[in-house]
Amino acid sequence: MLNIALFGPPGAGKGTQSKRLIEKYNLTYIATGDLLRQEIAEGTDMGLEAKDLIEKGGLVPDDLIVQIIEKRINTDTEARGILFDGFPRNYVQAYILEGLLLRMNDHLSCMLSLEVPREELVKRMIERGLTSGRSDDNLEVIEVRLKEYETKTTPVIDFYRDKEIYYPINGIGNMDEIFERLCEAIDQTLTHEHVNMVLLGPPGSGKGTQGKLMAQNFGLVYISTGSLLRKEIKEGTDIGIKVAPYMEKGEIVPDEIAIRLIEREINAHSDAKGFIFKGFPRTLVQAYILDGLLKKNNSKVTLTVELKVPTLECFKRLAARGKTEKARSYDKDPELIVNRLEEYETKTSLVKQYYKKQNKFMKVDGFGSEADVAERLEDVVNLSFKIIR
User: Fold this and answer.
1) Is 382 strand, coil or helix?
2) For residues 196 and 206, what is the distance between their CA atoms, to the nearest angstrom?
3) Can you identify the CATH homologous superfamily of domain 195-388?
4) pLDDT at site 385
């Protein structure tokens, strides 16, 4: 998802630009000021509580803000992201926003800060007060709001600068000029977003072949836990010695070993624009683990694709591979092949449900020629890029 915090002092033009941004990028609009004014207009308990504070230029309590934001997010599930206008307004709220997005298995893509000189801000708000009817657009309250911004909200910039997602935007000029600057910053941010794909499918569905092709065609890094483990076994490492018995039977190796290998691969490709994971996650617990591994790099799973191939066809493919030099030890035993196919259906079904609930799961017909399947997968990967860009 594309999640943006639009930052700037009162009168910087956040509301005007927000309307254009949410339309262009299909975002849910979270304007705490507007939401609070709606509560006030409806005469709710929260509205009455907030009214006095807003008219004096003060800040509404965070617990009230959080309740309103969560309610708004839950009512719009079709948007591709969220635009926060007026939140976070202080250092504490920056951490609150981190927590809110973490609950959604997401993160903030960028913080855009409209930079406008103080004298221009005062002029704009005085002029707005003559036509808007807003009680807080008078000189006394304006001074309080600007001072509040300068003392309490400015430190938020450091929070996002440290995360390297802070973009100062010149807020002087006509609406089109400012909008163009904002869009340039957003588009630059999107080029930094990773595309991380999980490739699922029963043993023999062709995940290895197709995963390598996708990685090559789209400039992604292919991470196969099976390949990594076989390399450890071949080199006779301590890890290889530990996992050899599991690999001979086609069983799932201990998670702590898989974590070490995957984390090593991710760290070795810090400049990658995304990863394709094959063979991991195979269980629900491993899905949680992968989320944690990617979160450390301020990233997440973008899409999960399952190659659908009939069970009998998978059995035939594995049995045939067992007669070649590419055979795995478990390909030569029909009973082990059946066990592996059954294990996929029982354990990986929870993984599929996990990603379905996040709207990150798609199926692709894996039956047919290598080229036909690759073409179908290419369409899915292109869709994945569109989702984040």
Assistant:
1) helix
2) 19
3) P-loop containing nucleotide triphosphate hydrolases (3.40.50.300)
4) 61
Q: What is the average pLDDT across 26-35? A: 86
Fold matches, 2-190 and 195-388: yes
Higher pLDDT, 105 or 13: 13
Lowest model confidence (mean pLDDT) among 49-63, 251-265, 284-298, 369-383: 49-63
Residues 182/8, Cβ–Cβ less than 8 Å:
no
Domain 2-190 has CATH 3.30.2270.10: no
Residues contacting residue 354 through CB under 8 Å, at least 6 positions apart:
284, 287
Rounded to an integer, the average pLDDT of 220-232 is 94
The predicted pLDDT at position 191 comes to 67
For residue 5, the one-letter residue type is: A
Number of C-beta neighbours around residue 121 at 10 A? 21
Edge-to-edge strands of the sheet including 110-115?
Answer: 27-31, 81-85, 2-7, 110-115, 166-170
| Token couple for 163 | 């995360």
Residue 240 CA to its chain's centroid (Å): 34
Handedness of CA 34, 36, 37, 38 (dihedral sign): positive
Task: Please compute the mean of the pLDDT values over residues 247-267 and round it to a whole number.
Answer: 91
Residue 57 has what pLDDT? 73
- HEC-encoded secondary structure of 116-133: CCHHHHHHHHHHHHHHHC
DSSP of 320-348: HHTTSTT--GGGG-HHHHHHHHHHHHHHH
Percentage of residues of the chain with pLDDT beyond 90 = 46
Residue type, 134: R
Domain extents in the chain: 2-190, 195-388
Distance from CA of residue 122 to its chain's centroid?
A: 38
